[in-house]
Structure formats: structure tokens, C-alpha cells
Amino acid sequence: MQAPIPGVQRAVASGTPSHEYPFDSKVSLVTNHELNMIHVENLSKDYGQVRAVRSVSFDVPRGQVLGFLGPNGAGKSTTMKILTGFLTATGGTASIAGFDVATQSLEVRRRVGYLPESNPLYMDMRVDDYLRFAAEVRGVRGAQRQQGIDRVVEACGLERVYRKDIHELSKGYKQRVGLAQAMIHNPEVLILDEPTSGLDPNQIIEIRDLIRHLGTERTVILSTHILQEVEASCDRILIISQGKLVADGTLADLCEVLPSGALEIEVVGPLESIRQQLAELFVQGHVEHLAEGHARHGGHYFRVHVPLSMDAHAREATFDLIQGNSWKLVHLYRQKASLEDVFRKCTLSDAEAESLAERDLHSRVGEEVAHG
Predict the structure, then answer these.
(1) 307 — pLDDT class (breaks 50, 70, 90)
(2) DSSP one-letter string for 117-132
(3) What topology does CATH give the domain 258-370?
(4) Cα separation of 250 and 355, whole Å?
(5) First to last CA, the chain
(6) CA quadruple 86, 167, 209, 183: dihedral positive or negative?
(7) pTM of the model
(8) CB 290 within 8 A of CB 303
(9) How far apart, in whole angstroms, are the C-alpha atoms of residue 318 and residue 330?
(10) 44-99 tens-digit pLDDT
(11) In this structure, are residues 282 and 306 in contact, taking their beta carbons and an 8 Å threshold?
(12) Sequence-separated contacts (24+) of 32-36 with Cβ below 8 Å
């Protein structure tokens, strides 16, 4: 596992919803946008001899959608269960809207909506009965109860299945019902564990837009394995690995900290001369010959790990080298650091990350040859 990425400042991205949602924008307790709605300090959790969460600390301000990423078993779900009061921490503190999750659990639960990975549905109940039950449990009664139900039914697109038994629903609609129960009491904080699981592409876009809108008025923690969802929905990203927080920042900040990706080159010419001159050009870098003879144009595929000192002009220098030797340039591409690169860098060893990157490139080369 790699050390935390340094030098990343936390930031809140602002956004304007593209259309209106049927939610009351008023939240009673906190009106200061800069106030941290979630505060976590040195949080730890042990299961016997196993430490699942290791001194994790972070703050989340009001109006931010936070992507919470990590491999399986990294401690994401454990951290979220502590924040929602489902588990007690072994050490450290956490608060929601100023209320301590350990000593003021009821106040915390009034202000948090939670959709766990295992959707908390009663399969024999109808959707309308289940939502009324969820509202009652949350203390939403009288006229406010039906208003809350109407809001979440419209927001989650449940009109067509409102009077159906839950066990009759598709997985996507069951996920919508779970999201509706999390929002039934109009909470200030939403904690969503894999909220788009089982949804089709159109439904994913709808839920993504809804999450973005909710984040303009509320604090949202979104945990998912779908990196594209985090890129599209989140203002800021936390990555946890082996129980430790290893990255924290906006997508742009995290990608900026990583060195630019490698150069991918396909060139036609004498192999040994190309290899030698690329190695001389990038003397502080690393040149790999990845494919020979079977590339689409009969050329050779190379990947060059560019040293930081040459980062700004690596492609220009490579082009000049190829042109000066009258070789034929077929392909010259500079990889850009992505969220996937950041995730790999933070959660895999160098050898594991390198192996996956090489496998991906060989796969792309094979596809080009097959379609050449």
C-alpha cells in the first residue's frame, strides 16, 4: 500500500441543479454552509484482533457530496455504520451536526438518512405501507408524513409501483424504495452505500442527478465501486485502504498530484535502434518494449515512463527523435492520470499497479490488432 497522497487541499465544488426536485429546501438546524456537518477524529474500530479502521480523521461541510472509496474490506462500511450509530467505535470520536454519535445517538439518527449495502426492506409489505412504516419509525406523523411520502415517491420514481408488494419489484425498484426510506424524514445528512446497485443506465443517471441536487442543500456520503459515479456526482473524494485514509481531495487535485501517465508509442523502424535511442532520450525514465511484430502496422509498441524533469515536453522530444531518424510514427499518446490511476496508486503496491497497467495496455494493443 502506498503512503497518503500529500499536498491535497479539500475543496467544495458548487453546482446548480438542472431541474427542480420535489424536496423542501429548508433544513431547520444548521444554516451556515461552512459549518462541518460531519466531524471524524482518530476513529478506530477493532473486531477482536483485527483493526478494521485505523485512526481515520476527516470533516465534511454542509452542501458537499463526498465520494468514499476503497477496496473490499478497507473499512468503508464500518466507518459509515459508526457514523449512523449502527456500530460503536473502539477509539476516537465522530459527530453529526454537532451531536456525538456515541453519546447523542438519537439526535444523530434524527438527522441522518442511511441506505446500507444490504437494503433494509420488508419484502411482504407494499411500497406505500413500507414508506408509511418508515415515516412512523422516523417520527414523521400527521400531514407531514404524507407530504414526506409524496416527495420521496416522486423523487425516486415510485409512482408505478406504489401499491405493489416489494417482493414483486425488480432489483432497481427495490433500490429506489431503499433510497426513499433514507430520505423520508428530510435528513440533513445522507449516507448511501452502493445506492445505484442494480439500476439500469437511465435509472443511474436519474439517481445521480438526484444525489447532486441533494448535495446542494445537504451533506451526502456516497460509497460505491463504480468510479464513474464518483467522478460524475462527487465534489470531493476520500480513499481508504486497510483501514487508513490514504487520499483526500477533489478529483482534479488528486489527479494533479500524480505524475502524468506514460507515453504510448507505436513506431516502425529498427527495433534495437529505437529501443536504444528512446532509452538515451529518457535516461532518467523507464522504456518498455511491449509488442513486437504483431502490431497493426508492423511496428513496435513501447511504453515510456517519463521523468518529471521532461514531463512538459516529452511528446515533442519523442516526435523530433522519430522524425530525425526517418522512422514511421503510427501512434503517440500521453496517458492522463485518472481516478482509476489514483485508486490503484493508493490501494495497490507498485508491482500490482504496474502489472494491471501492463495488462490493460496489452489488451488495448490486442484489440487494435484484431480490428486493424
Answers:
(1) low
(2) SS----TTSBHHHHHH
(3) Alpha-Beta Plaits (3.30.70)
(4) 27
(5) 39
(6) negative
(7) 0.72
(8) yes
(9) 13
(10) 999 999 999 999 999 999 889 999 999 999 999 999 999 999 999 999 999 999 99
(11) yes
(12) 32/62, 33/61, 33/62, 33/63, 34/61, 34/62, 35/61, 35/62, 36/60, 36/61, 36/62
Enter the DSSP assignment of 126.
B
Beta strands in the chain (DSSP E): 36-47, 50-61, 65-69, 91-96, 99-100, 112-115, 189-193, 219-223, 236-241, 244-249, 263-268, 286-292, 300-305, 328-334
* Measured distance CA(325)–CA(150) in Å, rounded: 71
Q: Does domain 36-111+187-256 have CATH number 3.40.50.300?
A: yes
- Here the cell at position 251 is 478529483
Single-letter residue type at 198: G
Amino acid at 244: K
More confident position, 146 or 20: 146
The residues spanned by each domain of the chain are 36-111+187-256, 258-370
pLDDT for res 361: 46
Q: Report d(CA 162, CA 152) in Å as an integer.
A: 11
Per-residue three-class SS string for 260-290:
CCCEEEEEECCHHHHHHHHHHHCCCCEEEEE
**350: its cell numbers:** 507498485
> C-alpha angle 242/286/339, rounded to 5°?
40
> Beta partners for 51?
46
Q: How far apart are CA 146 and CA 156, in angstroms?
A: 15
Residue 360 backbone dihedrals phi, psi, to 5 degrees: -65, -45
